[in-house]
Amino acid sequence: MIPSLRWLDDEGAVEMIDQTKLPYELTFLKITTHEAMARAIKVMNVRGAPAIGVAAAMGMTLAAQQATANKASSREVLFAYLENAKKTIDSTRPTAVNLFWATSRMMGKAKATQGDTKEVVAALVAEAKVMWQEDIDRNKAIGMHGAALLKDGDTVLTHCNAGSLATVQYGTALAPIRAAIEQGKKIQVIADETRPRLQGATLTAYELYYDKIPVKVISDNSSGLLMRLGKIQKIIVGADRIVRDAVFNKIGTFMVALAAKYHNIPMYVAAPSSTLSLSESGKDVTIEQRDDSEVTTVLGKVKIVPDGVEAINYAFDETPIDLISGIITEDGVFTPKELLAKYQSRTK
Ligand code: MRU
Q1: Is the pLDDT of residue 191 over 80?
Q2: Which class does domain 149-343 fall in?
Q3: Where along the chain do the CATH 1.20.120.420 domains lie?
């Protein structure tokens, strides 16, 4: 797969795949302002925690360019503009921690850069590009560590899309699968369709099919039966935020984890360290609630409930961390206990 987004040096703009159009059309959006970037994140033209992080970083770079084009005369005026842009970008989606991690890192970079406003803008362009490359490198490392968990012939269940499209490239949950296949192992994927936005059906199936990786899509309520029938050997999902006692990921992950525990099937979470927020516990996290219409229709097209009936639409759920066999980061594979020990300094 091509990168889900990239910085265009000659235009000072961002080009991204419009994920709302997949799998029907591969089209691209050009984003030139931080307001447009915030909108793209909110309506999910770009989605997936690591991709949102890089998009948010590039949104801050766009904001810095906007400020200087509006003749931000001093560093103070530029920083005030950036703080405002950060608020706009941070208000788009509350659960994926990579968003806040990225805007804070960009704000820190701006303030730590010596020189005039032009030098700050140049530093933010460079930092966004570093974060873009870091994302790919971390995903490749996740792939290498995670591939060791997969045996030739395994069928792996995944939920939602934690693939190339959810990152800059290569993916998190799909990275071990990609790496294992690159090593010559035969791996098949089962993708939960992932109601209501159907990222499993529209995005995971799209990118795996595009890359010729065997994939079958199931309705979300099928995975328990498939585990019972012995048709799933491993489960790998991504994460939007990992706190010290829970993993927040796409709604439905918790039910998969419960069924996996019952059937003794290893369930792994793959995520870069930028998804860790170990100073928090589950109760600190805001779970995004999205519009009813995502549930009362199929992809906004066909209404499936009687007029007047409302829905409940949490976008993510909370899986207690003791249901997880291992967390795969760019640094290795960790039990929940080992994860806390490894990244302990970040809990302070
Ligand atoms: O609402 P989305 O599509 O942004 O949610 C993405 C997910 O929840 C993914 O499953 C995921 O694991 C995090 S991104 C790698």
Answers
A1: yes
A2: alpha beta
A3: 5-140
